[in-house]
Amino acid sequence: SAAEKGGYDYFMLKEIAEQPRAVADTLLGRIGADGRLTLDEMRISDQELREVDKIIIVACGTSYHAGLIAKYAIEHWAGLPCEVELASEFRYRDAILSPTTLVIAISQSGETMDALMAVRHAREQKAKLLGICNVNGSTLPRECDGVLYTHAGPEIAVASTKAFLTQLVAVYLIALYIAQVRGTKWGDEVFAMVQLLERMPEKVEKVLETMEPVRELARSLAGERCVLFLGRHVGFPVALEGALKLKELAYMHAEGFAAGELKHGPIALIESGLPVVVIVPPRARAVLHDKIVSNIQEIRARGARTLVIAEEGDTSVEPYADTLIGVPAVPTLLQPLVTTVPLQVFACELATAKGHDVDQPRNLAKSVTVE
Ligand code: AGP
After folding, report:
1. Which among 71, 163, 186, 201 has most CB atoms closer than 10 A?
2. From CA 296, how far away is CA 294, in angstroms rounded?
3. pLDDT by position in tens, the chain (length 371)
4. Is 345 within 8 Å of 211 (Cβ atoms)?
5. Looking at ligand 1, which residue's alpha carbon is closest to its atom 4?
6. Quick check: 356 and 249 in contact, CB under 8 A?
7. Using CA atoms, how far apart are residues 217 and 213, in angstroms rounded to an integer?
């Protein structure tokens, strides 16, 4: 009913708008007054975490994209090797697991059969199991040694939005917490990141306030057949997520690429008028940033119509952007929290312009309880 949707036409719109709150709720009670993290509820002891020598993340769909971003955070802050695998593929390969391997399964619903089967497979090989889950009392937490809940609140729309942002918060907390208990060389940075995480709800709110140009562009693209998404580093999984949202909701061919791979094939797809969304890393990461700016020039020279998502005030991309969306300046690893939001709005608006019900896309179920 309209009341359940809080005055929005779709649950998805409501859930997109709820993201600042969802992010804040997922941080709540986990950061002490001294800036140190407490994740006791996780039920995996600090001693056990110190013994971990490898992390494997398993998940499906959007949750898998959160896992891909987690890899960057875990390797950097926690200093541990980390692999990310689609849950449906994981159990059919001969992954090398041991009691000092931590397997993290990410699932909004906690009922995704592929994720549950991956967890059972890991348990047989005696790995430690941690779930990241949004639904209290669902199956996944019961099958794991420990769980860290996201506090997104109920997500009704089939396309994941607020659950994804809170999964990112959860993986950042885990990476930073492992860094804290292991005492990695990034001590000061870890402390600074925790402070910054607390400011992320207001940054996400700022993004939401500036979405009109994204909506306008989305409406103008309703007649297109294909949209490409490019990103580097954590911007690459964000590109994959932007493409998945568009497939699910607008039933359009959409693909995400690592910008560095352009020359290895995808650049052949670029033709006059093709819409390409590009996620630009912060200027502080000069090498990454400059490489993507030259990628934008390359595709623009071949006629692409560019939607560029970059840090506010990043004038270097202006000459190559048909539409430029500024997002608040945040460190590279946290940037997906602000760059994903315009892509959600983009897909939602484009699908609505095509007349689709964004809450109930065709052929999809909210949780996939079969393999
Ligand atoms: C997201 O928009 C999708 N509907 C889908 O990819 C989803 O993320 C996937 O099925 C995993 O679901 P889960 O997080 O509940 O395990």
Report:
1. 163
2. 5
3. 677 888 899 999 999 999 999 999 999 999 998 889 999 888 899 999 999 999 999 999 999 999 999 999 999 999 999 999 999 999 888 889 999 999 999 999 999 999 999 999 999 999 999 999 999 999 999 999 999 999 999 999 999 999 999 999 999 999 999 999 998 777 788 889 999 999 999 999 999 999 999 999 999 999 999 999 999 999 999 999 999 999 999 999 999 999 999 999 999 999 999 999 999 999 999 999 999 999 999 999 999 999 999 999 999 999 999 999 999 999 999 999 999 999 999 999 999 999 999 988 888 888 888 88
4. yes
5. 159
6. yes
7. 6
Cα dihedral 260, 262, 265, 268, rounded to 10, equals -170
3-state SS, residue 5: coil
Q: How far is the CA of 235 from the centre of ligand 1 (A)?
A: 19
Question: Angle CA(18)–CA(20)–CA(24) in degrees, nearest 5?
Answer: 115
Strand partners, 307: 277, 323
- Say whether 337 sits in a helix, a strand or coil: helix
Ligand 1 mean position to 158 CA, how many Å? Answer: 8
Question: Which tokens sit at 69?
Answer: 């971003």
Known active-site residue 203? no
Give the closest residue to 87 by CA, choosing from 108, 107, 102.
107
In angstroms, rounded to a whole number, what is the distance separating the alpha carbons of residues 151 and 26? 5
Per-residue burial over 322-357, b = 16 or more CB atoms within 10 Å of its CB, e = otherwise: ebbbbbbbbebbbbbbbbbbbbbbbbbbbbbbbebe
Q: Report the Cα–Cα distance between both ends of the chain, in Å, rounded.
A: 32
142 Cβ contact list (under 8 Å, min separation 6) = none
